[in-house]
Specification:
322 residues; eight-stranded parallel β-barrel; two-stranded antiparallel sheet
Length: 322
């Protein structure tokens, strides 16, 4: 789908069911949420959570990756601000700071299940839902074993896994994994080219479907990686103006690389903390700016997640085409 298609099929609030179906087809809506292996979020909870999202018309669930957390960071969390629900061209802040340094939003005893095994479990409980990494820290992965792990996951999920990748922002985490923080960008680029060379056109060497490969971030280096060595771009917490500017750069880099934008997949990831009724206009703004998908982080609670999902689905008319 091209950016122009997204803008063309976006509709106003006074739409009939046909227009709503077109609106639904214009942009995929994913949920970003985490599963930590705690007593409340066990495999049974995960399965019910995933089936609820699927039944309500969401396109996917995207799960974060961190191998470890720290009590304090000298590394600044790069996404402490998020677009305002009322005006996505204005930023709001929600993260704590320590000594003026933004800290990642995490519980004191935070943990996360492995992103690949979590994806397999969520896909096992569903039939249509896609599951994505939001995002895998690629330079701390083993470049020899990862392709096999991804090929296995693609087979187990019938090709429903999307691989978002990033270089990692926390030097504490990268170095604790016995990796070199300063060279992580160069290694990430090399790993990406290796993966795409192995996968070719949509399948691996034995014909298994391969994940959509999206590069996170909006730095010049990240945009180059997305345009030359991936099949998509996945920035996080950009305002509409920022997304529009960087998307234009992404499109230019794709053209320079001889690649077709319509064959790529751009997803805007956003933390949303406002009135859910504002989501329709919020999502439409990103679709008009060129996003093929919008991944929304709502920090859904264990008890009320189904009601919140249902309200979001209703606001965005997701169940129309589900």
């Amino acid at each position: 789908m091209s950016p122009d298609d997204a803008a063309t099929t976006s509709s106003t609030d006074n739409t009939d069911s046909t227009d709503s179906t077109e609106k639904r087809s214009a942009v995929e809506i994913g949920l970003v949420d985490l599963f930590d292996g705690g007593a409340r979020r066990d495999p049974g909870f995960m399965a019910t959570f995933a089936r609820t999202a699927e039944e309500l018309g969401f396109s996917g669930i995207w799960v974060p990756e961190h191998l470890m957390f720290f009590d304090e960071y000298s590394s600044a969390y790069p996404y402490p601000n998020h677009p305002s629900a009322d005006d996505p061209d204005r930023l709001e802040s929600h993260n704590k700071t320590v000594g003026g340094t933004a800290q990642v939003e995490a519980a004191d005893d935070q943990g996360l299940l492995d992103v690949l095994q979590t994806a397999a479990e969520l896909c096992r409980a569903t039939t249509r839902l896609r599951v994505g990494a939001s995002v895998m820290i690629l330079p701390i992965r083993n470049p020899r074993t990862l392709p096999r792990e991804l090929a296995t996951l693609a087979e187990l999920t019938a090709g429903r896994f999307d691989l978002g990748v990033g270089v990692g922002w926390a030097s504490e985490e990268v170095e604790a994994c016995e990796s070199v923080f300063k060279t992580r960008g160069r290694r990430t680029t090399a790993y990406l080219h290796d993966l795409t060379e192995r996968w070719g056109e949509g399948v691996d060497s034995v014909g298994h479907p391969v994940p959509r490969l999206l590069v996170a971030g909006h730095s010049p280096a990240a945009l180059r990686r997305a345009a030359t060595a991936a099949t998509g771009w996945y920035p996080y917490n950009l305002t509409i103006s920022e997304f529009t500017e960087h998307h234009a750069t992404y499109c230019r880099l794709l053209e320079e690389a001889g690649r077709d934008r319509s064959e790529q997949h751009a997803v805007a990831g956003v933390r949303f903390t406002g009135d859910l009724t504002a989501l329709r206009g919020f999502v439409e703004r990103y679709a008009e700016a060129g996003a093929d998908g919008v991944n929304i982080s709502l920090r859904l609670d264990d008890d009320g997640y189904a009601d919140t999902m249902a309200e979001v689905s209703d606001v965005l008319n997701l169940a129309v085409a589900a």
